[in-house]
Known about the structure:
Elements: E1 8-12, E2 17-21, H1 22-50, H2 54-64, E3 70-72, H3 73-80, H4 84-96, E4 100-104, E5 112-116, H5 118-138, H6 144-159
Antiparallel strand pairs: 1-2, 3-5, 4-5
Amino acid sequence: MENIKRPLAKVTTENNTMEINEHRVSLLLSINTANSLLSKKLDGTLGAIHGIGLTEYMVLNDLSNAHEYTVRRIDLADSLGKSASGITRILLPMEKSGLIVKQSNLKDARVSLVKLTDSGMEIFNNAHLTVSQKCDQIFAHWSEGELVSISKLLSMLSLR
């Protein structure tokens, strides 16, 4: 039997019946697949050229835009959608390689700060050029209007 996707499907379990909007499920899967493919492309390029992955680039990007290049560790975790332990696993190798340093907050000892080093800024600046060039290739066939539209739509996901 052919699997036909319907816009709305009813699913019955032991306890209840609910309608599933297949368009929403399909959208979620498409976004996840696109994210995975883009991450894979950028991870490979950044790793080969700069020795960092996309996640490390995103950390460096956040720090490069922060006041005094310093951010609370938990704010980095939130920005990247990671847990406190997840961001720690990301930051440890970055600290060992000299891209960042951990600092204490003089006002509140419970707060852990992360600061971008000069070496980290240099790596970020070079990696940023690479990411920009890769984005030019990936989105070469998109109009500015399409880029703006999809950017607005995707930003709505993080607002909810």
